[in-house]
Task: structure prediction
Amino acid sequence: MMSIRVTDLFIYPVKSLRGIRLERAQLDIRGLEDDRRWMIIDDKNKFVTQRRLPAMALIQTQLTESHLILKSSQGECAIARQYAGTGTPFSATIWNDEVQVLDEGDAVSAWLSDALDGLHANEPNLAKQKKWRLVRLANQPRPMSKPQYLGAQTHTVFADMAPLLIANQASLDALNSALVAKGETPVPMNRFRPNLVITGLAAFAEHRLAGLAGQGYQIRFGYPCERCVMPSIDQMTAAKHPTMEPYITLRDINSMPAYGKGEYAKPANPKAAAFGENAYLAHAQSSLLLVGDTFQVLHDES
Result:
């Protein structure tokens, strides 16, 4: 059987802010520990990402034993990992889900608003006069997202849909070869914000697998990740590519394949780009993942 190796592990403590590379991470049905445990909302209690505010990529995150630290050109802001506020839960929207959240307070909101306003100084209509707030999930779990593809027991916190995003290094290499052939600049893996990066598969072969088998657990693949315009945002500068690369090239070489079965079958979509697999933990309550871990591939038994 083919052996697959983990080359990188990433978490993104605050949705759409800069991530953290790890050597090890605990995995459960909600994904990697500390991944997307906070998100930013607007004055209508709706989630905000780089799709709307590209400069969110420039705010760094750090985790200590006791605090989440946010860093930008405006300085630092510390948030206790154990909720220290006095607020009551309220409803916020992430995609089609209504979630109960807790606000991290006015001081954090003021810091975020100043930071994002400063980072978007050349785009005043995006951030000016906005009051951005940082929230965490309250005690009530988020409603299930796509259990027909992601398993009946999975949950996410503030990831878009799936607990995990698995990316294949060979797929990025193929994309970069196609970009260079067009005279474009290669892009790093951080454009796609994966949780796990793996090697050992051919380019885009991940879309033809059922998942990966580790020691005493499985990571099941739910469906290919349909990409939006976010990969066109440079994660180090927040600049958008003027012609939406690498999205256009990715769509040309790896459009969304068909997935699902029976009433949940989805046809291929040649107008959309795919990169990576939305995935979840199966056959275990939790597992420790390490850079260098190896997997065996799982194929669909049907």
About this structure: The mean pLDDT is 93. The two ends are 18 Å apart (CA to CA). The chain has five helices and 20 strands.
